[in-house]
Fold:
Amino acid sequence: MNAHSGIPAHVPASLVYDFDYVTAPVGTLQPQNEISRKLKAEAPEIFFTPRNGGHWIVRRASDAVEMFRRTEDFSSAPEYNDQRQWKPTLLPVQADPPEHAEYRKVFGAYFSPGNMRRMEPDIRQIAGGILDRIAPKGGCEFVTEVGEVFPITIFLRVVNAPMDDRMELLKLAQMFTRSPDPQGRAQAVKGLSEYIRRLFDLRRENPGDDILSQLIKSNFEGRQLNRDEEEGLGTLLFLAGLDTVRSAISLIVTYLARHPDQYARLVEEPALIQPAVEELLRISGTSSPERAVTHDLDYKGVQFRRGDRIYFMLPLMSFDEELNAAPEEVDFKRELSRHLIFGSGPHRCVGSHLARIEVRILLEEWTKRFASFGLKPGTDVPMAASTVWTPERVELVWPTAKQKENA
Amino acid sequence: MTGKLVICVDRQVCAGHALCAMRAPDIYEVDDEGFCCSDGNVVPDGAEDQARLGARACPEGAITLEERGA
Structure:
C-alpha cells in the first residue's frame, strides 16, 4: 500500500513530494483543511508522489477545471491507466467523449434536479425512519447506524432491490474504497457487478420503472446496451453514491457535534439549513478523481508523459483562496460557498443533485429530533486510511425525553 | 443604466451543476437534465446583483452577462 515507486526519469526532483493521499487523513481532525494547509506550505502546485504506484497531484481549482475539460489530454479511459483496468469498465466514469455523453444520457435524465426533487418525500421517510429508531437510545455510532444505512437504503429504493441486500452490498463497496491495491478494488468491482447482473436479469423478466429497467430500455447510439455496459453502468451506480454520501454526512455531523453554536443556529432557523448544507459540503469533500495522460505534453511548465496518472485533490480545493475568501471560516451566510467536491466538466458528479437533497433532508430531520447533541465524552473521531476520505466511527450522545423528564 | 443586461450561457461549457438556479432561482432556469436554459434572457431591472451572483456560482464560468445598448 505504501510501496514506494521509483521516480520516472521525466519528473524533476523539484516536483517530487512524498504524499500518500490514502493515509494522509489518519491522525487529523479535519483532513481537508489541515492537509490543504500543509500542502500549500510545503508542496508545489502540481507535484509527483512515489506513493500508490506513483502519480501526480493537482491541488488548485483552476487547474482541475481546465484539465477536466481537456478530456483528449487527460483521459478517464482504462486504456491509458494500468491501475484501473478492472472488469467491467465502470460507466460513464471510465469513458471519454464522445461515447461518454451517450452513456451519461441514461443517468442524466434520471438524476436531474427536477426528478430528484420528486424523490424528496421518499427520502424524508427513509431519514425519519432511521432517526426515529435511534432517537430513544440517547446515542449512536453514526457511521454504521446512519451514515451507511441512509444512502444505501435510498439506492436500494432507486433500483427497487430488496433491503436484505444491504449488508452484502456495504461489504463490497467498502472493499472497493478501502482496498490499498488494484487487485482488491478489482475483486470488489467483480463482486458488485455479479450482484448487478442478477438484478438486471430479474428486471429483464419483470420490468418496472426503476433505473435498471430504464437502462435496459435505453438507446445507445441506436442500439441496446450490451451486458458489459449494463454491468459497468449499474456497478458505478452502486459505488458512486454509497461511501461518498456516508462519508460526507458523517463528517458534517461530526463538525456540528464539535460546534454546538453552529448547530444551534440550524435548530433555531431551519431556513438556514439549505445554505448551510453547501458550506458544510464545501469543507467535507471526500473524493479525489483520477485521470491519465494520453500523450506527452507540457502543462504550465510541467512535463507529463503518456500514461502518467494524475489525482485531483478536490477536497482541498475548497480552501483555494481563488474560490473563497477566508476559506477556513465556516460561514453559513457566505454569499457563495464555492467548491469542486462534485468535480467539474463532462464527468461532474451526476448524483450531485441527489446528494445535496440527501444531506439537506438528513439535517432537517436531525434538527427536528435533536435540540442538541455532541460527541460521546472520551471518544475521538479517527479518520480512516481510504481512497474516499471517511471517519472510522462517530460516537454521539444526546439528551432523551426520559432524561429531560428526570432532570 | 439604460442598456439591458443579457444572460449568455456557453452550453458547451455548462456541465449541469445547476448552481446558477440554486443561487438565483428567480433568474436562472435549468432544463430536464440540469443544464442552464437561460441563454439570451434579459435580466429584469433591479435583479442585476442576483444575476451576477448566479453567474459567479457557476464553477465552469459558463455564464457571462453582456450589456446590450438601450
Observations:
- The mean pLDDT of chain B is 93.
- The first strand of chain B starts at residue 4 and ends at 9.
- Residues 48-57 of chain B form the longest helix (10 residues).
- Residues 22 and 54 of chain B are 8 Å apart (CA to CA).
